[in-house]
Amino acid sequence: MDPVRVIEGRVTVLDRADVDTDQIIPKQFLKRVERTGFGEFLFHDWAKEPGWELPRNPILATGPNFGCGSSREHAPWALEDYGFRAIVAPSFADIFYTNCTKIGLLPVTLPEDEVRALGEAGQATIDLEAQTVAFAGREVGFDIDPDIRHRLLGGLDDIAVTLQQSDAIERYERERERPGPVTTAL
Length: 186
Hints:
The chain has a seven-stranded mixed β-sheet with strand order 4-3-2-1-5-6-7. By secondary structure, it is α/β, with parallel strands linked by helices. Strand 3 (86-89), helix 3 (94-101) and strand 4 form a beta-alpha-beta unit. It has helices at residues 21-24, 74-82, 94-101, 112-121, 146-154, 158-163, 166-177; strands spanning 6-14, 59-62, 86-89, 106-109, 123-127, 132-135, 138-141.
């Protein structure tokens, strides 16, 4: 996974609340386990609506409760494959939020009026290290779990995080091979 530091560019607005993962990527496209190739099916059913347009920009601004519904990993994969690097919303479904962070797609939670202003500005810079979103001459802070922030800044997926503990894991395994109780803590 690539490190996430600063994401800047145009903002795509999806002014809808309660966007379900089934709407993000419909079930008929879930027949593969690769993480790529899902972008072309993003919002497949909505794309049939007259006037539907979803510009390929790095930042998506959307309504509250984004990513609700089932916990399919394919939804963040499709968003990332389409070209989004950050999603800004007033709230996210918990599992969807976590799935985004595991692939390097940055979910940013801001108040609804700030998300609306961001969409109206049409251009933004999101700085993960500073935890700020800058747009239209102003800067708004956002909160993110320190562990998630560390993982994203370092480009660390679950395997990379585990490998960072390889010395402690090896010590633990050596201790287990010896007779008697295990005394080494991770």
